[in-house]
Design a protein that fits this description.
The complex is a heterodimer of chains A (247) and B (263). In chain A, 47% of the residues are buried. Chain A has 2 domains: 168 residues, P-loop containing nucleotide triphosphate hydrolases (Rossmann fold), CATH 3.40.50; 65 residues, no CATH class. In chain A, helix 3 packs across helix 4. Chain A has 9 helices and 10 strands. Chain A is α/β, with parallel strands linked by helices and 247 residues long. In chain A, a hairpin with a 2-residue loop joins strand 9 and strand 10. In chain A, the strands form 2 sheets. Chain A has a 6-stranded mixed sheet. Chain A has a 4-stranded antiparallel sheet with strand order 2-1-4-5. Helix content of chain A is 36%, strand content 26%. Chain B is mostly helical and 263 residues long. Chain B has one domain. In chain B, helix 2 packs antiparallel against helix 3, helix 2 crosses helix 5 and helix 6 runs antiparallel to helix 7. Chain B starts with a helix and ends in a 9-residue tail after the last helix. The chains are: A alpha/beta (247), B mainly alpha (263). At the A-B interface, helix 1, helix 2, strand 6 and helix 3 of A face helix 1, helix 4 and helix 10 of B.
Chain lengths: 247, 263
Amino acid sequence: MSENAILVRDLVKQFGPVTAVDRLNFAIPRGTCVGLLGGNGAGKTTTIAMLLGLVTPTSGNITVLGHDMAHDRFTALARMNFTSPYVDLPHRLTVWENLSVYARLYGVADVAGRIDELMVQFDLTALRDRPSGKLSAGQKTRLGLAKALINDPDVLLLDEPTASLDPDTADRLRSALEAYRTTHNCTILMASHNMLEVERMCSHVLMMKKGKLVDEGSPAALIAKYGRANLEAVFLAIARGEEENAA
Amino acid sequence: MSGSLTRIGAMIHRHYYLLRGSGPRFIEVFFWPSLEVMLWGFLSLYFAKQGTGLATLGQLALTCAILWQVFIRGQMNTVITFFEEMWSRNFGHLFVTPLRPWEFVVAILSVAGIRMSIGVSFAAAVATLLFAAQLFSVGFLLVPYVALLMLMGCWMGVIMMGLIFRYGMAVEWLIWMAGFVLMPLSCVYYPLTALPEWLHPVARLIPVTHVFEGVRSVMSGGPATGFVPALLLNLLYLGLASLFLRRSLDYARANAMLVQQGE
């Protein structure tokens, strides 16, 4: 069995003349939470889409939970999940119906039981019969996270997991995700623009710029390396091309 | 295999929930086939008042109108069911589950088949009760003819899905019109001989042409014809359509079109 939950080797994605992802290499050990950071157009979304099999790489290899995503992605996908506030669930289906459909798609044994657990955990019980399209942005984010945990995934890909949430709810959800990671030895790869969130949750950070991995390390190590006060300042230094100031 | 059935069942549930929660969608299942059948039903009543020969012609047209609905509703329902996923921008979630592409296609076709069966059965009942349609005079031969029409609806639907994956919503106009474009050459309401001779080879390439020629033959007391050519053509086109869909899906994945749906 592989020690790494996710292994990416020489990953390239080109769209015509544009190189969206340029020879990306990284490995994410099991049970860790890793942040994927970068400005707009850095290649984060394309990288996540390739990890999920939604986009085929131009070249390179992706292995998730020991499965080559080019040839055996469905075995891996059964043990993965994903959420993004930018990818809605069907608006006309109610909260319960949406969770029920995805529970069945992932082959969850006790559909009703698992949904009830998640509805309590994400405070969705009162919204059970409300169409997803009529939820507030924050409620949709909670539903997305409930859907992301419906199959007890071993690998979780999160895109802005706490976007649109008030600080209290966001804090509760971060705690829930951390608890889930610890109890299930789940691997989390998280794209976020909330640097405080990344500092709190991630033990390792991948910094992308123009499709390339420009730096990586623990938040503390990166802060020390760049001589900045916090991760946000490191992000700005990299985004603005001030890497030469790194110690 | 049980995993596949569960996932296909999940997709059927998804569309059942959608239909259950939306009055306009539910009515749409019955509306178009019934409207079409009523149009031809009133025409058959008018023909019946004009004389015996025209009455037979009217009944023949009404029967063919019902059977045409099997094909056109099958194809249209495939497109509508598929578009529901596009409109809800659901591919970003669906295609990161263990749902295989072939399971997705089978689920879409199953939902379309269920919708078509309900709608056309209702329309056939309306035609029988209000216009004394003689659909069942074809007898048990109706079963294989209906199956052949459904099969054509399937591969046409598969091609439509392939076109959307390949070209996106830009080809929506073509998707809605495709079945109707074939209609003049499908000899639904008139025999093949009504077409100019030079068009016969083209018309014979369309499976439903053989079905309607066969149905007219049976209703006129002749032999049941058209099964073999209609089946062989359907299987050939289904194979080609599946290949096209697979290539289109590969293209969509290579060009991030599953992530960026819509226009």
